[in-house]
């Protein structure tokens, strides 16, 4: 047995692949099992459809390494010790193993009656009949009126995953309040941190021409004016005095000073209408009160601000975010649970048939 392939299967948790390629074998030759997962056969047709599902990602993988062009020789040429066809087969097999594990899990807890190709294609036929009936009756449907195998499997597994999570959340993955609070503490910094409240003074210099369009010459002037203002702010000079001097030096420019407040309550408004300023405010280091120059193309101006006061925003309360915390906890717990089952899966490969799998 190819140990590299078995090892890659055991590391499935590091490479989750998309579904959408499963179908009934097309011929008796394809029906021959190329592998098995916990005793369940994997047909050649299934593996090759998985390979087609991984094709674009593998091409991109080698493209980013700058080692290959996807020509006729691509799949069987070795680049840096790797052949694209081997990477493709390994990723495809990982995707198939994960899919088979999820199907077996769903059957074991009573969500589905079978895991066979025949059963899945029966489900596909029933779903397409449901959609056809809805179209005939003038009822709304989501997506196309008829799903091909790839679209159906993506649809089927997305719904199956939701049902699996809901079921397991009540049993094996049920979380206590203590576990949820601990999980909240571990993710609150990047999930539930509220924006700080900033009182700031901002100078905006418009670079729009009289017709309201951006004029390159005026923008260069605005850049020079704003740079001079920023230098004085960094030296902690008086903002109004700095702007007054700039207005004299650049009489054709309009420099506007405003004192404003940014807070969690108005953060969405900033994000929607002044996205560049929002980005600058939310990323401004606490130990640097003066920002870099900001190009707010939404209103045709350059700006710089000085933070006058900062108040920590804190975090959304655990009690207020309990539903979100629970959903996030179940998501990661489910992935870990499935990954563990994948690592434990008994994967057997028919090396001769596996070698014949092709993307071409």
Which of globular, elongated, flat, extended, rod-shaped describes the shape? elongated
Q: What is the overall number of helices?
A: 13
Number of strands: 7
SS-based structural class? alpha+beta
Query: Into which percent range does the helicity of residues fall?
Result: 40-55%
Q: What is the typical, i.e. mean, pLDDT?
A: 87
Spatial extent as radius of gyration: 29 Å
Query: Which stretches are poorly predicted, pLDDT < 50 over at least 5 residues?
Result: 1-30
Distance from first to last alpha carbon: 25 Å
Main beta sheet, described?
4 strands, antiparallel
Query: How is the quaternary structure best described?
Result: single chain
How are the strands ordered across the major sheet? 4-3-6-5
Order of helices and strands: HHEEHHHHHEHHEHHEEHEH
Q: Which percent band covers the strand fraction?
A: 5-15%
Give me some keywords for this one.
alpha+beta, 3-stranded antiparallel sheet, disordered N terminus
Structure description:
With 360 residues, this protein is an alpha+beta fold. The protein has helices spanning 3-10, 28-31, 44-64, 84-108, 117-136, 149-169, 177-191, 216-234, 239-249, 267-273, 275-283, 322-344, 351-356, and strands at 33-37, 40-43, 197-206, 255-262, 294-296, 301-311, 347-349. It has a four-stranded antiparallel sheet, sandwiched between helices. Strands 2-1-7 form a three-stranded antiparallel sheet. A hairpin with a 2-residue loop joins strand 1 (33-37) and strand 2. Helix 1 (3-10) packs across helix 4 (84-108), helix 3 crosses helix 4 (84-108) and helix 8 runs antiparallel to helix 9 (239-249). The longest helix has 25 residues, at 84-108. The chain starts with a helix and ends with a helix. The relative contact order is 0.15. The model is unreliable at 1-30 (pLDDT under 50).
């Amino acid at each position: 047995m190819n140990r590299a392939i078995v090892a890659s299967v055991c590391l499935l948790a590091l490479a989750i692949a998309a579904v959408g390629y499963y179908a009934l074998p097309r011929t008796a030759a394809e029906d021959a099992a190329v592998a098995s997962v916990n005793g369940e056969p994997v047909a050649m047709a299934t593996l090759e459809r998985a390979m087609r599902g991984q094709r674009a990602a593998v091409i991109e993988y080698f493209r980013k390494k700058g080692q290959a062009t996807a020509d006729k020789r691509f799949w069987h040429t070795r680049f840096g010790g790797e052949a694209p066809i081997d990477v493709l087969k390994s990723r495809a097999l990982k995707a198939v193993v994960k899919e088979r594990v999820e199907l077996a899990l769903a059957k074991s807890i009573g969500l589905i009656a079978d895991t066979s190709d025949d059963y899945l294609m029966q489900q596909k036929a029933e779903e397409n009949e449901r959609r056809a009936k809805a179209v005939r009756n003038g009822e709304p449907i989501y997506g196309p009126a008829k799903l091909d195998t790839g679209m159906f499997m993506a649809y089927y597994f997305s719904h199956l995953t939701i049902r699996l999570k809901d079921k397991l959340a009540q049993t094996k993955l049920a979380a206590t309040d203590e576990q949820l609070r601990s999980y909240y503490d571990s993710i609150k910094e990047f999930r539930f941190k509220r924006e700080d409240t900033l009182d700031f003074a901002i100078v905006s210099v418009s670079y729009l021409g009289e017709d309201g369009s951006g004029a390159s010459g005026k923008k260069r002037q605005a850049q020079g004016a704003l740079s001079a203002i920023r230098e004085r702010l960094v030296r902690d000079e008086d903002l109004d005095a700095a702007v007054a001097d700039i207005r004299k030096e650049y009489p054709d420019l309009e420099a506007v000073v405003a004192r404003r407040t940014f807070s969690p309550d108005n953060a969405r408004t900033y994000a929607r209408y002044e996205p560049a300023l929002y980005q600058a405010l939310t990323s401004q280091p606490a130990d640097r009160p003066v920002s870099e120059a900001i190009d707010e193309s939404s209103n045709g101006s350059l700006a710089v601000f000085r933070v006058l006061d900062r108040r920590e925003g804190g975090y959304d309360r655990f009690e207020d975010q309990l539903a979100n915390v629970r959903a996030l906890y179940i998501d990661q717990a489910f992935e870990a649970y499935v990954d563990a089952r994948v690592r434990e899966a008994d994967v057997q490969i028919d090396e001769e048939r596996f070698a014949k799998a092709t993307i071409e």
